[in-house]
Amino acid sequence: MKRLFKKIDRKEWIYQILFLVVLFIFYSFDKDSPKIEWSKFVFFLNYVLLAFIIGYVCLPLFFYTKKYLRFFLALALIFGFAYVMEEYVLERIFFSDRRGKYVSNVFYTLLDIVPLVLTMVGFKLALDAITKQVEVEQLRSSIKESELRFLKSQINPHFLFNNLNNLYSHAIESSPKTPSIILELSSVLRYMLYDCKEDFVSLKKEIEHLKHFTALNELQIEDRGKVSFSTSAIPDNYVIAPLILMVFIENAFKHSTASQSDHIVIDIHIDIEESGVLNFKCSNSFLPNANNESLSEGIGLENVKKRLKILYPNQHDLSVAESNNVYNVNLTLYLQSNT
């Protein structure tokens, strides 16, 4: 019994007491007799006891555990007890000279008892449903946070693996671009490790990171093609989920360089509307005879689709298509304001 009371938190006690007070007012109201009769209070307490047993014992033990047969048997016993208690005890105590002299029909007695008791039990069911909904929302939030942490953890190793291989090849060849690659890689890693731990970061910082990331990859193309990166004016009051746009840029470089030895064309443009809508466009050339099957199956693209679904539900529009040997990514994001 102590364990049962411990499970009932203070808020639930308050809600139950307030509800029972209101219910008792309606139950005891009599326009011909404004005075509350002691008998009505005792009868009402009997109903409260029945509802308490059903709501706090039978529901968790039988109903919520799907033992429905036991639950309905328990209800039958409880209402049978209620009938006996009312007809053979309470009425003979308070109405010995009137109703207590004879026993009423079971149907008419239960017709007085059952609606009131079920109203109390219904209120308990409503409280339980609200509590369960809160728990479900908390669980969903926890799962969402865990999934986001997992998805972000996938990005860093994926990025490092690709760029450390490129750095190694330049170092082996004693390329004069090695120091520049290290400097750009250092800027990118500093941002990824320290500045983007939150779910959302400053839009300006994210775009600055994208510029460093693009410059890092552009160093690998040398004179084999053309890379352009342009943006409209970047407002200060917007935030964005970090490392999402980077995936599309990384894929553009990876699959252009994998299928072409020269004439590489990569165009990146970011435009922010006054309403806070970000339009991201990234296009890259490729040769159709090369192996580009992994483009739609890689970790990066699947990762970013999942993150968009979690962080921007019904607030983004992503289209990925190829036409005339050009791969086009168009992403529209409805940004959040930090003010």
Reconstruct the topology from this structure.
Layout lengths: L1 H6 L2 H19 L9 H26 L4 H27 L11 H67 L5 H18 L5 E2 H19 L3 E7 L6 E3 L4 H15 L4 E9 L4 E9 L13 H13 L4 E8 L2 E9 L1 E2 L2
Parallel strand pairs: 2-4
Antiparallel strand pairs: 1-3, 3-8, 4-5, 5-7, 6-7
Helix pairs in contact: 2-3, 2-5, 3-4, 3-5, 4-5, 5-6, 5-9, 6-7, 7-8
The count of strands amounts to: 8
> What's the SSE pattern?
HHHHHHEHEEHEEHEEE
Averaged pLDDT, please? 80
Alpha-carbon distance between the two ends = 51 Å
Task: Indicate the CATH architecture of the largest domain.
Answer: 2-Layer Sandwich
- Specify the helix fraction band: 55-70%
Given the structure, what is the number of helices? 9
**Alpha-beta classification:** alpha+beta
Name of the CATH homologous superfamily of the largest domain: Histidine kinase-like ATPase, C-terminal domain
The geometry reads as rod-shaped
CATH class of the largest domain: Alpha Beta
Query: At the third CATH level, what is the topology name of the largest domain?
Result: Heat Shock Protein 90
Largest sheet: 5 strands, mixed
Gist of the model:
This protein has 339 residues and is α+β, with helices and mostly antiparallel strands. Helix content is 62%, strand content 14%.
